[in-house]
Design goal:
The protein is of the alpha/beta class. It has two domains: about 220 residues, Rossmann fold (3-Layer(aba) Sandwich), CATH 3.40.50.2300; about 160 residues, Response regulator (Rossmann fold, 3-Layer(aba) Sandwich). Helix content is about 40%, strand content about 15%. It is built from eleven helices and 14 strands. The strands form three sheets. The chain has an eight-stranded mixed beta sheet, with helices on both faces. Strands 9-8-10-11 form a four-stranded parallel beta sheet, with helices on both faces. Strands 12-14 form a two-stranded antiparallel sheet.
């Protein structure tokens, strides 16, 4: 993991706030006032959270619309760098309660990429005694400015923008509603700003390991072809499947790969009918493995692949190798926004991650939250995957990934 944390006036203000909070706590302790005078504030509900939601991860990567600018990075500070006992004051509106708002591009209960962020945020909020999370889901890119502004006007203190596909209005809104702490699960990246924290991931490196894992699984099972079901040839999709193909062919150049768009432009990763038809066509043409790089349509395709006996991959979710339920996966392709929330939010709380920072997760780096995993891998298969991770971490593929990014994003 790498992090950039350029000094900003906003960061300095938050560090100063830590001292004020600490002095206030001392004063309160000396006064011996045990009365709790804060009233609970009811959140304006938009989309109700299901009581029982299965924790997942995925898509996808669903990464972003634009390629990130090259940014010099440094080693990330440990999450425990903040002085003991100090926490950032996140009660932006002063109502005595910290509340998270989540803007999700897809369904909050998709069992994949979008739900992962919601589940992780709800769990972290409950563990810290915060207010009920407010979730607005199924946000279309064209409506993002309105929906994010509406959510910012609710009694929230932290805003999670769940994917960069709806992040275009974020720079202006984060500055306008600067009392709120803004965090973007930005995948392939978004322009740097002092008004929001963002996580990114090495999408090409993750996709490369997914291709290696698929190649190993196909080779060892006697298969020879994979169908990649996506949306509509978006830039981050192109980056992902080209790096995926590179990893696949590193195992065996004779393995065949087909990309199949299933959604309407832009960002339609939830078209179950089209994805199902694409699956049937792919199987009819001999596909032995299916990579459903999808959101709301992901689990229905997994079910079809389970019934059809094809190798199937997750699209972001990290827990699928051990997840209970009727569905099963052969490979977990991890770019799980829920994992990123679990890593980052303790750092937000202790002040070691601040608005303006960019945190990047990559295969072969700690924490180990990015890259493909073969479920129930043999020792020999795991050794091959370890080599793939080490290759990505070494930087030896950076030139290849740069060429892929140029092709995908037109750079």
């Amino acid at each position: 993991m790498t992090i950039t944390n350029p000094p900003t006036s906003r960061s300095r203000w938050r560090r100063a706030a830590l001292s004020v909070v600490a002095l206030s706590l001392v004063a309160a302790a000396c006064g011996g006032d045990d009365d709790d005078s804060s009233d609970d504030t009811e959140a304006a509900e938009t989309t109700d959270a299901p009581d029982d939601t299965e924790t997942t991860d995925a898509p996808d990567d669903t990464e972003t619309t634009d390629a990130p600018d090259d940014t010099e990075t440094t080693d990330a500070p440990e999450a425990t760098d903040a002085p003991s006992g100090e926490t950032t004051d996140l009660d932006a509106n002063g109502d005595g309660e910290v509340r998270i708002g989540i803007a999700a591009a897809g369904p909050r209960d998709d069992g994949a990429y979008y739900q992962a962020v919601v589940d992780a945020a709800e769990t972290f909020s409950a563990e810290n005694g915060w207010g009920e999370v407010i979730v607005v889901d199924n946000i279309q890119a064209a409506d993002a400015a309105t929906e994010l502004a509406n959510l910012a006007q609710q009694p929230i203190d932290i805003m999670i923008v769940g994917a960069s596909e709806i992040a275009e209005p974020m720079p202006d809104l984060a500055e306008e509603y600067s009392d709120i702490f803004w965090y973007c699960n930005c995948g392939a990246g978004f322009p740097e700003s002092e008004f929001y924290l963002q996580s990114q991931d090495n999408g090409a490196g993750i996709a490369y390991t997914a291709g290696v894992a698929t190649g190993i699984a196909l080779r060892d099972s006697g298969g020879d072809s994979v169908a990649f079901l996506g949306c509509c040839d978006l830039g981050f999709e192109i980056q992902h499947y080209l790096a995926y193909q590179l990893g696949l062919e590193s195992v065996d150049e004779s393995l065949t790969f087909t990309y199949v768009p299933t959604g309407d432009f832009p960002f339609d990763f939830d078209n179950i009918q089209n994805a199902s038809a694409a699956y049937e066509n792919a199987v009819a043409e001999g596909a032995d493995a299916i990579y459903p790089y999808l959101g709301g349509a992901h689990e229905p395709i997994v079910q079809l692949a389970n019934e059809g006996g094809q190798i199937v991959l997750s699209a972001g979710a990290s827990d699928v190798c051990t997840r209970e339920g009727d569905l099963s996966w052969d490979i977990a392709v991890r770019f799980d926004g829920g994992d990123y929330v679990r890593e980052i939010f303790p750092q937000i709380l202790d002040g070691s991650a601040q608005e303006g920072d960019i945190i990047v997760y990559s295969p072969g780096e700690e924490p180990d939250v990015a890259g493909a995993v073969i479920c129930d891998a043999t020792p020999e298969q795991q050794a091959e995957m370890d080599e793939a991770y080490a290759l990505v971490a070494s930087g030896d593929l950076d030139a290849n990934f740069g060429e892929i990014a140029a092709e995908a994003f037109g750079g």
